[in-house]
Write a structure and sequence with these properties.
- By secondary structure, the chain is mainly α.
- The strands form two sheets. Strands 1-2 form a two-stranded antiparallel ribbon. Strands 3-4 form a two-stranded antiparallel ribbon.
- Helix 2 packs antiparallel against helix 3 and helix 3 runs antiparallel to helix 4.
- The N and C termini lie far apart (39 Å).
- This is Metal-sensitive transcriptional regulator.
- It holds the Pfam family Trns_repr_metal.
Length: 122
């Protein structure tokens, strides 16, 4: 059971499986948690580590006065890699968190999702 908006609420089977509740109150404030599988966490972490290395590489290119077009192409590669991470997270979010919240009657999640998608598409 997790405390949700002042009352006890059974966590979903998926959340119980991962030992987490979605809408847990901490210090009187609503805190949401994701519940990614270990495989997904490893995939995302690996991708982000590669992106981190690419960013360091771009910094080095600039410090070495590398031709601008070459630097811009590396920046485009990093942006593409970040977009891929965002797409993976968005897919997982829609298939788990969003569905669970809609099933719980929390349709305001759709407005939250639209704001997030608009930010990703900028």
């Amino acid at each position: 059971m997790a405390k949700v908006e002042g009352h006890e609420h059974p966590t979903s089977a998926h959340c119980e499986e991962h030992g987490e509740g979605h809408n847990v109150t901490e210090n009187g404030k609503l805190v949401r948690h994701s519940h990614h599988s270990e495989a997904m966490k490893n995939n995302l972490t690996s991708r982000l580590n590669r992106i981190e290395g690419q960013i360091r590489g771009i910094k080095g290119l600039i410090e070495r006065d590398t031709y601008c077009d070459d630097v811009l192409n590396q920046i485009a590669a990093v942006q593409s890699a970040l977009n891929s991470v965002g797409r993976l997270l968005l897919e997982g979010h829609m298939k788990s968190c969003v569905i669970e919240r809609i099933q719980a009657g929390e349709t305001e999640v759709l407005d939250e999702l639209l704001v997030t998608v608009n930010k990703l598409m900028k």
